Amino acid sequence: MYNDIKGKWIADSGNGKYKNPILFSDYSDPDIIRVGKDFFMVSSSFTYFPGVPVLHSTDLVNWKIISYAVEKMPLDKYSTPKHGMGVWAPSIRYHDNKFWVYFGDPDEGIFMANTENPFGKWNDTVCVARSKGWIDTCPFWDDDGNAYLIRGVAKSRIGYKSKLFLHKMTADGTQLLDDGVLVFDGRINHPTLEGPKMYKRNGYYYIFAPAGGVQTGWQMAARSKNIYGPYEHRVVMWQGNSPVNGPHQGGLIDLDNGESWFVHFQDLEGYGRITHLQPAKWTDDDWIEMGVDTNNDHIGEPVLEYAKPKGLISEIIPPVDSDDFKGGKLSLQWQWQAYPKDSFYDFTENGIKLYALPYEGDNISDASNVLCELMKRPNFDVTTKINLGLNENDSCGLVITGGSYYGIRIENGSAKQVSFDLKKDERTSEIVIAEKKINTDSVYLRLRVSYLCNVDCYISEDGINFEKIGDTLKYEVSRKSWVGGKIGIFAVNSNGKNNGGYAEFEYINVE
Fold it and tell me: What is the pLDDT of residue 426?
């Protein structure tokens, strides 16, 4: 289904067509807007910070990360990892000459950040409403000046799901004015209804929302002449005969030339929820169709290849995942497992020095100072050179991580293949699968990831001859963390002390 082109996943075929996914990365729960000739996309980030990645495109196919909307939240709890919490399903809108991002934290409430320049720094994140179980938020400013916010609910927090609520909101977007009115109940026809987006067209209010679950679901559209309903509804996209499972949860774009496009995710096991682009069109009776209607039933199926949007131009943008850490600051590809701190690292002439800091817990899923980046292709080798400055009880390594992790830990003169499974309802310990003694102050580590997210571990003392350690492991997403695998590097101390140890990573090379 998927191809590696010259070692990189390229969605732009260069012949007037594109292929899905447009982003082979875990940009889950995407939402999208158009401002003039520019397109902007945001996605979930959970406990990883900076949070809410903001991507930019001029053709809907080639995308580049330009900023993060959330540096920190007005909460202290994310100073340490809280897997599965944090930023859920953000939405982005342009209103009053500002870009607005809203998202729900399932345990804390609804939050917002805005900016006049999405390429620069966003204003501090503020809390719009304290709540529990309110998620998947989308603001809506109506033509009459009234402001609203539609949202879903998390059964894991409040015991029920599949209901959508509409709130009145202050015009400045900083506060909800009520507890919400139930505008759509999907429990019968659209179970696990979530992720709503609201639009207005030709006098109709539209709610686009996914249902059926992330792995097997479909996309629903509902409409009404009254914002509070009642709403008529229909399924507008499903998997059908396509290999793209669960096509839903995303955002719609209308172009000036009459074309419409829908961005959504596909759950692809260890890679997380990767990003697809589907053609869409409005019918004469004001319903939307997404994908390609192969059965003449107004229910579309996802495309794997299609003609690019007309009149839109961009250079081909390959994924950015290698790094030599020479720029004097972290590239935008990197996030931490919790709020970042300057004490986590320094730059050196050779690369980046990660300090072996203490953390609470018995595995690196509990460590804040794990530096991570999204995987961006189905098959790759990631290699790093580490100059070791470890002291007692210090360790460092290279892993594929997302709460659960697989990879190599260097500790006490040994390279260990390790595995940790982040269980939903219980704690487990890191498992050492294989071990090899090392006799050098510098070591080369390599992880080989192959479709579907099988991970092999290698070590070298000269950077030329690599020896495999242990078994092949299949990375699987934990439903506790809700994220796909990421490339992660770390240096930590396991006994609660800072002994001055470090690991200097000269580069991350992905090919």
Answer: 66
d(C-alpha 54, C-alpha 165), whole Å: 26
The owner of tokens 């505008």 is 183
Measured over the CA atoms of residue 98, residue 99, residue 103 and residue 108, the dihedral's sign is negative
Backbone angles phi, psi at 488, to 5 degrees: -130, 140
Q: Nearest Cα to 262, choosing from 232, 283, 292, 295?
A: 292
Six-digit token pair at 249?
């949860």
Give pLDDT tens digits for 288-313.
Answer: 999 999 888 889 999 999 999 999 99
The SS3 call for residue 488 is: strand
Instruction: Name the β-bridge partners of 94.
Output: 99
Type of residue numbered 357: L
Among 29, 71, 394, 421, the one annotated catalytic:
29
Task: Categorize the per-residue pLDDT at 4 as very low, low, confident or very high, splitting at 50, 70 and 90.
Answer: very low
User: Tokens representing 333?
Assistant: 């590809």
pTM of the shown model: 0.97
User: 26, 136, 194, 289: which one is catalytic?
Assistant: 194
Residue 29 appears among annotated catalytic residues? yes
How far is CA 173 from each of CA 90, 98, 103, 470, rounded to the nearest angstrom? 15, 11, 13, 53
Q: Is 461 a catalytic residue?
A: no
Give 240's DSSP letter: T
Q: Is cis: bond before 50, omega within 30 of 0?
A: yes
